[in-house]
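Record 1 of the preview.
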Amino acid sequence: QRLRVRLIYDSSVDSLPNEKRDFIKMRLFPEAVDYIQSALFVRSPGAKILLNRYCATNHYFMKHRDPHRYCQSACAETTRCGPVTVPDEHLQQCRVCDEGGRNCGSIGPAGGPGEPDADYVLYVSALGTDRCQQEGVVAYAAYCQLEAQLDRPIAGYANLCPDKVSLDAGEQPDMLSTVKHEVIHALGFSAGLFAFYRDDDGQPLTPRYGNGLPPFNDTTGLYQWSERVARRVSRRWAVRGGELSHLVTLLVTPRVVVRSR
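->
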C-alpha cells in the first residue's frame, strides 16, 4: 500500500509568526509529504507506532527472540527524536534489566496509545539550533528509530531553521525541494542505514552477526554495507586536455539495478 506519513508538529512551529506557521503546516510539509506518499509503497506492519524509550545510562540489553530493548537499570525521563521531545503517548512502557542483564521486565506507567493507521511518524520542528548557524543550512532531517522485524525507519524528524524560512513566492519552490530532499533522508536514504537494507523477500543484503547487526566500520563510524548495496568504482571522466579517473559510489541494490536497466 502507499506509504502513510503522520506529521507531528513541535510547539516551536506554532510559536512562529502566523504567516510562517501557516506556510509550514498548510503548504510546505503537506505538499512535500503528498509527493513522497504518491511515490513510495510499503508492506504495512499493521500495528500502531510506538517508540522505544531512551535509556538513562545509554546502555541496554536485547533478549533472544524478543524485539524489545531493555534499559540497564532505568529509562531516561525524556526521549528525543532529533531536537524534538517525543510525547509520552508515542512511547512504549519502560523495560529494564538489572546491571547484569537479568531480572528483566516492565516498570512504570503503561505505554501510550501510539499512532494508528500510519507507517511513519515525522516530527517537524522550527528550532534555531547550532546547525542552523552553518552557511547554506535551511533544514536538516534524519531517522530516529527502526522497527524490529525489517529494520525499516518508523520515525524521524525534520528541523527547519526558522530564520531561513522564506515567504517570498520566488523562493518557495526551492524551499519545497529542500524539504522533499530532507524527508527522503529521514525515510532511510542515508549512509547510516545502507547496511540495513533488505531485498524484496526481507532478507538482509549485508550479512549479520549473531546479534542481528552488520559489521561496524570504526573508521567511518557507520555500519559497513556489503557490495550488494553500494560499490566504489572508478570512472573515466573527459576533461579539457584528456581524461581523469574519478572514484564514485554506486547504489546497486536489486531494485535500483532493475530500474536503471
